[in-house]
UniProtKB/TrEMBL annotation:
Database matches in PANTHER family: CYSTEINE PROTEASE (PTHR22624:SF49), CYSTEINE PROTEASE ATG4 (PTHR22624)
Species of origin: Rhipicephalus microplus
Keyword terms, alphabetized: Autophagy, Cytoplasm, Hydrolase, Protease, Protein transport, Signal, Thiol protease, Transport
Pfam family, one: Peptidase_C54
Protein's recorded name: Cysteine protease
EC number(s) recorded for this UniProt protein: 3.4.22.-
Amino acid sequence: MQPHGGLAAARSWKPLVLFIPLRLGLSEINPVYYCGLKRTFALKQSLGIIGGKPNHALYIIGVVGDDLVFLDPHTTQLAVDLDVECPEDESYHCAHASRMDIGQLDPSIALCFYMATEAEFDSWCNLAHKHLISQMKQPLFEITEHRPLVGQTLQRISSGLMRASKH
């Protein structure tokens, strides 16, 4: 990937939180994606994965072997007393992390990354391409330097279908 640099670009860069929504299977995650998912946590820009079990969202923060380490943000809370100047917020934090087998993961997830600078974004592009795309039999996603020309792509597909149907 080519750096997007330059003085003007450096001045206009804003920190980026990147969410990559994925569907990695129909009703369960396809095991072909396990290695790629585990590798995402090795990237320094990783914020984790928003995902979970069916009908139960979790914040996945790491991996140990084939176990995903997660925080469960769903706890019942008492109503906050807004008359108190500094309400207690301790109960809004998870007391501990839990683990689940990667095979229990619902196939609808979002990979999350943070890049404070353009240099970090360029580094992420290179690392993601190297570790998550080019080395994978089935990559989680693709990275392109330019926006694809959807109209031309659709035209090529439809003309190919037209030629195929004539034979």
